[in-house]
Amino acid sequence: DAGVIQSPRHEVTEMGQEVTLRCKPISGHNSLFWYRQTMMRGLELLIYFNNNVPIDDSGMPEDRFSAKMPNASFSTLKIQPSEPRDSAVYFCASSYEGIGNQPQHFGDGTRLSIL
Amino acid sequence: GENVEQHPSTLSVQEGDSAVIKCTYSDSASNYFPWYKQELGKRPQLIIDIRSNVGEKKDQRIAVTLNKTAKHFSLHITETQPEDSAVYFCAAGFQKLVFGTGTRLLVSP
Prior knowledge:
heterodimer, A: mainly beta, B: 109 residues, mainly beta
């Protein structure tokens, strides 16, 4: 059974460029979460979707960040324009929102470096 | 909103000793408390979770306890092994999780 799939695994780009991170959740999961992890701030929730609808984007740092989920099997997180302080590991996680609360399963992450 | 505090930030033990990591949360509505293990350069992996209707849960060498009244929960690892060395995160919430700041556990042979 495939887990959460993220691409790319690594991204190095110059300041000002657009960055797009991609995520494919586990089949059958209807909740999707984007996290950012840094040494200084730890693991922060940026946004989450339920049934492809954004539910809470209060963690998105600023207007340069946007996320979409056009269908149940694909989501993107876009940064435009990128800045050096955006350098971090970005994780996508998914869960099944059934009866009660369900575990979140993380992808392998995208390590983003903005020069 | 929910706030989760985790202690200690680092923990060094000898192989075979027990390790305990503690977390407190602020929102009494939180009813799901997972623990994740993250090895260097890897993704967080769920190792155990507990829901608010349960006080304790065990899985081999790992156990979690929950005190809803005091709003704290703990991870207990017995008979630690070098491969237990990693960063451990607690989390609390309902639909969305708030994570603690992590505990770096080092198990020395």
